[in-house]
Write a structure and sequence with these properties.
About 25% of the residues lie in helices and about 35% in strands. It is α+β, with helices and mostly antiparallel strands. The longest helix is centred in the first third of the chain and has 26 residues, at about 5-30.
């Protein structure tokens, strides 16, 4: 039996016992409230480069994190030693810290009435019975397929195969205790095309909770090679105001910037360009953004958030209008409202498509820039100013013409969001944000 299979069978009882020990110890030391998270993970990771094994790791990690509250004072501690002695010591440390921190009227657990009551089975745990020799074989097949595509594939950064599983449990002094197990497996490859000053690198990957839904290793390798080859002989382009089409992997980051701007922490600190925008248009009328945390098997699915609050379908944007923020219990209290069940982030945030595939959006754009990679972190969450290095492809007459590099795309996020004119049906589901390509009507593209 594999390590992951054993983990699913045996960890729940042990994690529950440790959580109860920590909470009881916190109560014994006079704390008003306490919460604890316990996790146990294990996995296998293999990386092959140029046909040889570069790394081979079997790993198993465990941790317990505890937060206690006394007279609105907060103390936290953690330990990777899950012996009863170490857990008691971590509780004592957290209680001691709570005696020194400043009072915070907003500190404390999420409301008891919001705790998850019925925890659904979301089909998140799929063991990959993967032995090291088989993982090596898969990685070699992936990289080999990439290197065989064309003689211009001159080097490789390697292919990696990962099988991973974790059991997580959260409990608090409201009497809530809940846990679930999840897996996340992946195959990835990164290769280099060309020689000397004309080399280009690109990659591809597949990831899923269910190993049977992963792309075949040779398909991943060939896609990585294809992407590297198509970037050869890249040019620069003149500076201009142009439409910009973000491929799904880049569009996800764009929506991530939006989520950052409506997080509770940014809002109560008044550090967001979308401050006081609830009930106002932030996207065109045809855009909806909805969280769907209970999609079976999805990477972003979760029955409850990091505070035990039940997750639910959550309309964040409807017909372009901001309906709600992304809040945990603390930020909600600071803002005088209620948590949205987003302690720890969003869960399967999805944007609706306008129906076109990526090629259809390219034809709609007619002339502009297709962005396939971005560099740097030039996003100001306070002002919404956006400026990042990019590379991709020049589009003319609705067709991709040639690769471009060494350019910068710039604008303001508020105008970019309102300037969306199309969302593709080429939906990338490999993360907590699920979206297709996004076409923005105009940005400054700085080149020569």
């Amino acid at each position: 039996m594999s390590t992951l299979a054993k983990q699913k069978q045996f960890d729940t009882e042990r994690l529950t016992r440790l959580a109860e020990l920590a909470l009881n110890e916190a109560k014994r030391q006079g704390m008003d409230q306490a919460e604890v998270g316990v996790s146990n993970s294990s996995g296998l990771s293999v990386t092959v480069r140029l046909g040889d094994i570069e790394t081979l790791e079997h790993y198993r990690d465990q941790s317990l994190g505890l937060t206690v509250y006394k007279d609105k004072r907060k103390g936290s501690a953690s330990t990777s030693d899950l012996s009863e002695t170490a857990v008691r010591e971590a509780v004592r440390a957290a209680c001691s810290i709570a005696g020194f921190t400043a009072q915070d009227e907003y500190a404390g657990l999420a409301d008891a009435a919001l705790m998850a009551r019925n925890i659904p089975d979301l089909d998140l745990y799929h063991v990959w019975e993967l032995q090291a020799d088989k993982a090596i074989e898969l990685a070699q097949a992936c990289e080999g397929a990439a290197r065989d595509v064309d003689k211009q594939i001159s080097n490789s950064e390697g292919a990696t195969v990962v099988a991973f599983g974790a059991a997580n449990l959260y409990a608090n002094t409201h009497g809530f205790i809940g846990g679930y197990s999840g897996t996340r497996h992946s195959i990835s490859c990164s290769v280099i095309a060309g020689e000397g000053e004309h080399m280009q690198r690109d990659y591809w990957y597949t990831t899923d909770r269910n190993p049977q839904k992963l792309q075949a290793p040779d398909a991943v390798g060939r896609e990585a090679a294809k992407r590297a080859l198509r970037r050869l002989n890249a040019r620069k382009i003149p500076t201009a105001q142009l439409p910009v089409l973000f491929v799904p992997e880049m569009a996800r980051g764009l929506l991530g910037n939006f989520v950052s701007a409506i997080r509770g922490g940014a809002l109560y600190r008044k550090a967001s360009f979308l401050l006081d925008h609830k009930g106002k248009p932030v996207f065109p009328e045809f855009i909806d953004l909805v969280e769907q945390p209970h999609l079976p098997g999805a990477l972003g699915s979760a029955p409850f958030d990091n505070e035990g609050v039940a997750t639910r379908e959550h309309a964040i944007v409807s017909k372009g209008v901001l309906q709600d923020y992304v809040l945990d219990a603390y930020s909600a209290r600071r803002l005088g409202t209620q948590t949205t069940g987003n302690a720890g982030g969003v869960h399967n945030l999805s944007i609706n498509s306008t129906g076109q595939d990526q090629q259809g959006l390219i034809k709609q754009m007619e002339r502009g820039l297709l962005v396939t990679e971005m560099m740097g972190h030039g996003v100001n969450n306070v002002t919404g100013d956006y400026s990042r290095g990019a590379s991709g492809f020049w589009v003319e007459n609705g067709e991709v013409q040639y690769p471009v590099q060494e350019i910068t795309i710039a604008g303001t996020l508020k105008k970019m969001f309102m300037g969306i004119v199309g969302v593709g049906n080429d939906i990338d589901v490999r993360g907590n944000i699920r979206c297709g390509s996004i076409l923005v009507d105009s940005m400054t593209v700085a080149g020569d």
